[in-house]
Design a protein that fits this description.
Elements (H helix, E strand, L loop, with lengths): L16 H9 L6 H5 L6 E3 H4 L3 H6 L3 H10 L16 H4 L7 E3 L4 H9 L4 H11 L2 H14 L2 H11 L1 H4 L14 E5 L12 H8 L3 E6 L7 H4 L1 H14 L1
Parallel strand pairs: 3-4
Antiparallel strand pairs: 1-2
Length: 238
């Protein structure tokens, strides 16, 4: 749900000296983070922020989480659309909780975005699928266990050295039945070019994508009955 599986690493097989010489002559790719950080609106990618200690501290605070859950839900104004390439110009189309102001943390970024929404409207909508008692369970657990361990995924997914551990799976595909569900108001599906095409190549028995209407990023919280219905249908067909 949410995050598409883009496949295993692709290694340069069957190459020779002439291929290495050709590769050395290619123009170097621009530094994406340096491009994002340029004026007049310097920004940064949330994934590289999320493995910091500051991010872990923010995720255990209830007032922040209420706004964060709202902004990524179908209740907020989200109109996702695809990006054409992984460039700073294209990434700038993503909302601020993905492409953040350079000098702000996520807490400040969310507060800035929430100031544009009416507080009573947010409370009315959010409590429909995430009441205060449920939210407090998350807050209490994050305070008790801290969230740094959960954010290690961001460190692994953004560190090329750690990513090399997956080279052992190069060229492999998921060959078991897979179901992919996503909310049509979720921007996560649109962070990279052509994610569904890549997922279909990586998963030989992919079912979906199933667009869960009325959901944003938090599919199982926003539309639990629809999610369970789809899961039962999937299990019954496999």
């Amino acid at each position: 749900m949410g995050h598409p599986f883009l496949g295993t690493p692709e290694l340069p097989f069957d190459t020779g000296p002439e291929d290495e010489a050709s590769a050395s002559k290619q123009e170097p790719q621009p530094d994406l983070h340096a491009e994002l950080a340029k004026p007049p609106r310097p920004k940064k990618h949330y994934r590289w922020y999320y493995f910091t200690l500051d991010a872990a501290a923010e995720l255990s605070q209830g007032d922040f989480l209420r706004g964060y859950f709202h902004l990524e839900s179908a209740d907020a104004y989200n109109d996702p659309h695809s990006i054409a390439a992984l460039t700073a110009q294209e990434l700038d189309k993503l909302p601020p909780y993905y492409i953040m102001p350079l000098h702000l943390g996520m807490r400040e970024t969310v507060a800035e975005a929430m100031s544009l929404d009416e507080g009573s409207n947010v409370d009315r909508k959010c409590h429909r699928w995430l009441p205060d008692a449920d939210l407090q369970v998350y807050v209490d657990e994050f305070v008790r266990t801290e969230f740094q361990a959960g954010l290690i995924w961001y460190r692994v997914s953004t560190d090329p050295a750690m990513q090399h551990d997956l080279d052992i799976y190069a060229g492999k595909k998921l060959e078991v039945p897979c179901l992919y569900m996503v909310g049509p108001r979720d921007w996560l599906l649109h962070q990279t070019p052509n994610p569904l095409e890549r997922m279909k190549k990586a998963c030989t028995k992919l079912r979906g994508p199933v667009m869960v209407e009325g959901a944003g990023h938090w599919v199982q919280q926003e539309q639990p009955h629809k999610v369970v219905e789809q899961v039962l249908q999937f299990l019954g067909a496999t």
